[in-house]
Amino acid sequence: MSPSAVVTGGSGGIGSEVTSQLREKGWQVTSLSRREGCDVSDEVQVAKAFARLDSLDTLVHCAAELIKRPFAELTADEWDVQLGAGLRGAFLCAREAFRLMRGRGGTIVMVSSLSGVFGAEKFPGMAAYVAAKSGLAGLTEALAVEGRPLGIRVNAISPGSVDTPMLRIAGVEGPALEPAAVARLIVWLASPESSPLSGANLRMDP
Asked: How far is CA 84 from the centre of its chain?
């Protein structure tokens, strides 16, 4: 039986590359994104999407939103949209994954960012995005602890600039990683080859 995965934000950027690479390796992949009719910040929509699955081997949370705005001009709705996709969505999807993986194990990979790494340079206009990614890094460590007795491994990656449409929104100049290179690391974290790792946050600098 082919291994199964759910990839959030799977219709573009890093998520699209992860989806393609897993499928090339024979995985059955369910992609969740607003473009494909699932808002991962909506509890009801997430529950319905996961209810269609009989089992799950891997969850990859790539979904994120970036609205670049000076902090004093940032609206509460814009804050909620970014925390919703990046952090609330991770909570909702990981909770469903835990329920499906209970008793059989599995892997979860959170796509954080250097923006969420303590001490790394932050950029103006991205306060909500930074908060979401920082929360995702902490959530990874907490879930790794709870997942250990269940056979569930939880890791994160924190890439710097990645050549995606979101990088153009951020307006950050300089070297950038290719989405395919980031996806390869994610696919490795989803594989048995990375079995010693849980609770790790792997930093990727361009």
From this structure: 12
C-alpha 117/C-alpha 70 separation (Å) is 21
Domains of the chain in start order, with CATH, are 4-204 (3.40.50.720)
Q: What is the DSSP letter of 29?
A: E
Q: Which residue has the tokens 């994610």?
A: 186
Q: Are 59 and 93 in contact (CB under 8 A)?
A: yes
The one catalytic residue among 129, 144, 152, 198: 129
Q: Is pLDDT of 174 > 70?
A: no
Q: Is 129 a catalytic residue?
A: yes
Q: How far is CA 81 from CA 26, 43, 49, 173, 189, in A?
A: 34, 14, 20, 25, 28
Question: pLDDT tens, 60-112?
Answer: 999 999 999 999 999 999 999 999 999 999 999 999 999 999 989 999 999 99
Structure tokens at 172: 């950050």
The size of the chain, in residues, is: 206
Look at residue 3 and give its three-state secondary structure: coil
DSSP 117: S
